[in-house]
Each structure stands twice: as structure tokens, then as C-alpha cells.
Amino acid sequence: MISTTTIVFFFCALAAIIAFLIWSFRGKQELHLLHKLYLAMAVCYAIWIIPLIGIYFTDQENQALMFFWDCAMQPGGVLLSPIFLCVAATFESGIEKMKGWMKAVFILPVITILITWTNPLHHLQYQVFSVVRSQIVFGPWIYVSGAYNYVCLTAAIVIVLRFAARNRSSIYLKQSLLLAAGGLVPMMVNFYATFSGKEVSIAATPLGFAPTLICNGIAIYMLHLFDIRPIANRHILDWISDGYLVVSDTGLVINYNKRFESLFASQYGIAENRYLSDCVREEDISRKTAIYNMITAIESSRRANSTISYEQSVSVQTGGEVQKYYYVTDVSPLELNNKVAGFVVLFKDVTQLKRSMQQLQESQERMMEQERLAVLGQMIGGLAHNLKTPVMSVSGCISAVEALVDECEESLGDPQVTEADFREIYGEMRDWFQKMRDSSSYMSDIITAIKGQAANVNTDEESTFTIEEMLKRSTLLMRHEFLRSGCQMEVRYDRCREIVLRGDINNLIQVLANLLSNAIYAQNQAGGGKIVVQIGYDEENLNISVKDHGTGVSPAVRGKLFKSMVTNKGAMGTGLGLYISNAVVRGKFGGTMWFEDNEGGGSIFGISIPLSLVQIGEEA
Question: pTM here?
Fold first, then answer.
């Protein structure tokens, strides 16, 4: 029979279950499948022990009431094992909705309940009923229900132990062992009660299931297995990423979200409880580069014990078109007790950012090209004048040489024309030829300068050039503008040291030409004068400045210089020049542009280029 100690235990268990039910529903929070199953186990256990308490306080001679109590406790007793099997399956797969086979496991227990209640009609459950085990004569159905109970418990234990074996991470090891122990205890008690041949109390099996509830409760609530913390973490991962994947330290896929499933899992055969390495074969290397990148990054993260980041592109076919998406992927190790227990792989969609950056770059390049063309447009008149002068000079030299050639031909055979006369004519010819060479060299310099400035802004002709060469080309390009304005340019720098820069000379000429053009405009407002180009260097930078004595920069424009397209010229300017020049100096030379007031009135605009791009020769 049932001992008093056992009844006291049942009363305590019943009170604990009632308190647990009140606690579970007090906040009316949404219950997940695993919580619902555990609550069902608790309710079934209560249904099981209440009739046992009733049996304890009922006279044994009252067979009708005893049979009622036995029938009343059948739902709790026969449903606990299949519910425990569902708990194990939910733990292993992480599902939130019961599968069809999980519902089917309750068919046989329901049949057992019906057979028990209708036993007087067929005696399939009991041929002779008694609350004393030794006096009971069981019917044939007891073997079916008993075997089914063993099958459910064994299957549940196998599921959790198989999962623990496949996933050796300490994240799930404790939960697996607790769940397995929770199923092993009642199975051993049932085995002893069935095959020991000894008198065993009717309360033995319910007592055997008490550790099941305790172990399951610890695993689900105290160790937070699929409770609110992992759910909250999942929501956080969804919020900070466009896709995530969680793998164990052995590479077993544990969890991922819907975005990852649509982009990666469905394409590459990734599934939960499957190893990443099993998702690819040698013949798939070209098609499944994304998985190899993940595996490689995970191994690198394991070795470095730090976060590894890389960019991953994915091609997705939508509406008959293949679109390419770009993701920044972060692989971070998950530590538990100072040991790496797994990895989380976060995917952040940067497709739009890359497209925006590309559009910004294209827009900037168009603006730079427009500014280059604007500068060239201003120079066309001067270039035409500069080229016209040497062309006319060459033409005049040719006419003079032709006249000397004619004179030589007429003098042939004339005895009065001596050898010295011929040598004088030849000398004059050489002088004219030298003038033609000088004019041709000047034209060649102009063509070289304008050819470099007319090159497309996208080209990157990085080479070495001297400050002298840059100043020479800039002077040629700006010569007409200086002549037309009446301004003069004075260059000040230490000519005893050769200064060599590395980069595209045409970009720096464009910037200097813009500063000179602005200085000429400002100087003209003050009536013309001298514009000084100063070149020097300090411990960190080569500094090139253009100083004018004009009207200066207005306060409204001062704070926006280099940051936005502002101009001090009113309707005469666009504001593109300094803005683009600053972008060129930063992007092409890693330098900066700056501005300061000239003490004598006017402005000083400067360029600072890191000395890492500059070579300064020894003093001559």
C-alpha cells in the first residue's frame, strides 16, 4: 500500500505544481511549445497523484471507489511517457509547432484510457482488479500499454543522447544529460516493478516520474533551454543583422533565421542538426564558395579566438533576373566557461551602401571632370594666343630662311661673292633654325601640359615628378590669364634641393591652377599685383601655398570652405573648384587643403601633402 511519507511527498508535489501553474500564467505571456509540453507533464502528474491520495484515504473494501480512483489516475499515468517523448523531440529539433507524428503518439494512450474505464465490459486491462499488486490479474492490453511506455521512454532517451553525441558542445550537454536522466529513472522503476517479482507499491511508478519533472524543469527553466533568453537573443540577432547562423564548436548547425534560410540555407542545402562540412562535396566547390568561406572564417575565428570579418556576395534569381547582393559577414566565437562552445555568423546587407558609394564616386568623378573641363575652357583663349605666337614666329623664320636660300642660289658663280659671304649666310640660317627650335619646344611644352589636363579624371597615371616640372606646366597653362589680368606670379622655394613627388602630376596641376585662378580673381578686385606661390616643408608635410593681396574671404563663406560648394565670386563662380580640389588632394595624395588670412590683406590657400609621398634631395 501507500505509505504516509509518500502521501506527504505527493501533497508537497501537488502544492508545488499548483504554485508553478499560477506562476506560469500570472503574466499571460506567450508560451512556447516546450513550455506547453512541460506544463502538460505537470498537469498529468497532478492528475496521477490526486487519485493516489484518494486511494490512501479510501477504505480498501470499497472496490467500486477504488476502481474509480484507478480509472481517474490513468490519464496522468499513460500520457506522461509520450509527452516526455515530445519534449525530447522538441529539444532536438527546436520546433515551435507539433509535428504530425508527435500528435499520433497519443492515440494509443487514449485507447488505454477508454479500455480502462470500460474494463468491466471486456476485462482487457484487468481480469481481476485490486489495489494490492499481488492480487491483481492483468488482462492482455496491459502488455501493449506497458511495452508502449517502454518504447516512448527509450525513444526519448535515444533522441537526447544522440543529439548530445553529435553535438559535444557544453551548451547542450547539461540539458541532454538532465533530460536523459529524467527518462531513465522511471524506466528503471517500471522495469524493477515488472520483473523483480517483489511486492511493489502502486505509488512506485509515480514516484519514479518525480525525477523526470524535476530534471526537465531544471533543463527548461533554470538552464534557460528555449525560454525567454534565447528567444530574446534571437530577436536581437534579427534586429542587428540581416541573417544569422549559429553553429557548435564542431560545425553542427544549431539555428538560423528566415532571412538566412531564404538566401543561403535553401541554396546550399544547409539544415539544422547538419554539419556545414556535409553541405558540400568536392564537385560543389565552384557553386558553394559561400559555405567554404564560412568554414574558413570559423576556423580562423577558432584559432584567433576573435571576430573575423569578410565580404560575401550572393546571386539571387528574382523575376527571371539574377541580382547580386553583398554582405559583410562577422564570425564571432561563443565562450562558455572560458572555452569556445560555438560560433555565431552575422550577415549585414551592404548592397545599397555599395551602390550608394558607387553612385557617389561616379557623381564625384563627373563633378571633377566638369571642373577640369571648366578650367580648360578658361584656358582655351590663352592657349590659342600662346600657340599663335610661336606658330607665327616659325612661319617668319621659314620665310627668312627661304630668302637666304634664294640669295645663295643667285650668288652661285658670282666672283664677287666670296666664301666668307656664304658662311655669313649659313650662320644667319642657323640662327633662324634655332629660333624655330625654340618656338617648337615652347609649343611642345604647351601641348604636353594641355594633353595631361585633358586626360579623363578616371585615369590614374601615378609616377614621379618634380616641383619644377609641375610649376613649369602650371605657368604655361596660366600664362594668358596672368597676362590678361595684369597680375604677376612669383615662386619662392629652396631651389638648391630637388623636390620629387609621387602621384599624378595632372591632378596637382588642376588643383594649383584652380588656386591661381581664384587668386587672380581676388587680386583683380584690389587692382592687380603680385601673387606668391610658396613651397616649403616641415617634419610631416610638403606645403604649397598661393598668397594674394585681394579682398579676402567673407565670413559667410569661411566656415563652409572645402565642406560644400560655396564661392566668394557671386554669380561669377560655382563653388565647384575648391570642393573638387579638396577631394583630389585627399583622394589622390592623402593630403589636406587649408586656408588662412594674409597679414597684409587677402588670403592664403594651401595644400599639405604627407612626406611619405615626397622625396627631398640633398642640398646642391
Answer: 0.45
